[in-house]
From TrEMBL:
Protein name: Putative transcriptional regulator
Transmembrane region(s): none
Entry coiled-coil feature ranges: none
Lineage top rank: taxon: Archaea
SUPFAM superfamilies to which the protein is assigned, alphabetical: Winged helix' DNA-binding domain (SSF46785)
Amino acid sequence: MSHTKLIIEYNQHVHSALHCKHPCYIKITELLFMQTALNGIPIDREEKIEEILQIMADKYSRVLLRITQDCPKSALRISEETGIPISTVYRRVQKLQDVGVVRVSGEVTLEGKKRFLYQSKVKAISSKVAGEFINVEIIPNPPTSHKWGV
């Protein structure tokens, strides 16, 4: 059974919303982007902040980052596991690579074909709005050393 968990700061205390019925909590399905950033890397450039916020707003980008966190995967496997059209997977991967939140590795199959594998560089993204300031932090996702997903 998978649980959705939202962590928020409320009255200077951190509260967990797992199974909470209190009305100040909301249910979310994308844990990846709603975690409280601990030891995150702050993003300083305005342009980069805008790109990260656009990624957070795009459901396909969120799914792609989530599904490639634990194991690098090919575009075909991502498409098969998520139902996202392969052309959309390639477009989103390119955008995520341009922003710098996906690492790309390649391998040559036994048949001599090149295959590219994609893995999220992001474990979590946190954003805070305070007045006219927006703070964005990224918790990095270290590369995996286990078998590549194909």
